[in-house]
Amino acid sequence: MKKVEAIIRPSKLKAVQKGLKDAGIPCLTVIPVKGSGLQKSYSERYRGTEQSMILHTRIMIMCIVSDSNLDTCIDTILDNSSEGQVGDGKIFIYDVQDAIRIRTRTRGKEAII
Fold it and tell me: What's the domain of life for this entry (predicted)?
């Protein structure tokens, strides 16, 4: 099993969510995040004063997928989140040792299906 974390633009969330659902990966967790990367800072006006904003608002999507669904998950995120510009985001992949469904105490691959 793998944990896939994708940091994407907020405007791409619906497209990625629909793509993952259509690909048979309906389970995901979404977290609003702020961060900085290669994009330059920008300025905003707040209560009449101009402030330099270094952190950009993004969305982090987390999915736990079986090894056989990993490439499908990654390709779906890439296809639905890319604008071809700096700031499109990143995808991180981690190994997952085990998963347990609390309600039924099911373990392993059956717990994430």
Answer: Bacteria
